[in-house]
Amino acid sequence: MGKNAKIISIINYKGGVGKTTSTFNIGVGLKHLANKKVLLIDLDPQCSLSTICLKALTRRTGEINNLKNLPIERTINFVIKKYLEQTITGDKPILNLGDLIIKNFYKGKKYNLDDIDVICATMFDDTSSDYYKGLDDLEIEIASYHFGDKTRLQQLTLFSRFFSDTNIMNEYDFILFDCPPANNLITQNALMISDYYLIPTIMDEMSSNGIFHFNSLIQNTLLNGFKQQYSTELQTFNAPFLDFIKGKDAKLLGVFETLKKTQVDTNQYRRMINRVSNLTDCLFEEVIYHHKDTAKSAGNGVSAFSIDLPEKGEYAPDTCYGNLIISILNKLNIEFNIEKANQRIKIFC
């Protein structure tokens, strides 16, 4: 019997909150600390997560890997295009996960980590035009497809078709979507099939006020709105991709503070979030402190657990992310060796 992945969208409609860096470090940390098999999927048109992972792959293989030499067949763009074609032709796409997924991409400073994989995005797809296209172009294409009263049903089930056709979730313990800072159709596709979503945020007045609206938008306008609009289809149609959606009910896993400066008191904004009734107990105690080496190292394909700092105190990147990951695992009631995980936070990989 295969695994049954927890599918988590990491998302904030506000940019500049360390979302991609956090997705990368949480993914690597789940493997490093708890020996979980992880798949990262890049959904951001900027392709930052893909760039990070390809740099790690270059370090591991010794061969140059970048977005420009990445075949379209190895990207989420390819998946979206194939399932868009299916909405027109009705033909089931034939996808080879072995070709699509880049496996075992991570190399730390000391050793390789297996069982952490990635599906990249690209902004250099020239297979159907004489200029490069990316996920933002595909977003426009998805929005241009109309199917009468079934338009949203077709537009928002691309990923549920992909997941139900391939059973990809049976290969992993965790699948993490790095979502763009936008409420677009590709983001909505990810949320439709997620078990949870996780919100990284800086703590200021605008961000704290925005989280309540953001959570309401996801729960009421998107998820509940979709299921109400297509309740008949979900109850009566015999289709695996609809069964997949029926089995999902994305919940807020939590909000965690990022890029905190040690000299800045953010408690008033944390209290603002905790006072909102449907956000009570959603705020993780663990904080990701601002550290100049975290983003710089991630940009070079190096995780927080591979940053060799002379002193590793409570504000160190590996300590911050390690403690957050342990809390995430506990909140999900995931079985792992907590003593070993705490030990491995301090082990430079």
UniProtKB/TrEMBL annotation:
Q: Which CDD domains does this one have?
A: ParAB_family (cd02042)
Under the heading Pfam families, the entry gives: AAA_31 (PF13614)
Keywords assigned: Plasmid
Matching InterPro entries: AAA_dom, DNA_Partitioning_ATPase, P-loop_NTPase
Q: Where is each AAA domain found?
A: 5-66, 167-220
Protein name per Swiss-Prot or TrEMBL: AAA family ATPase
Query: What is the originating organism of this protein?
Result: Bacillus cereus
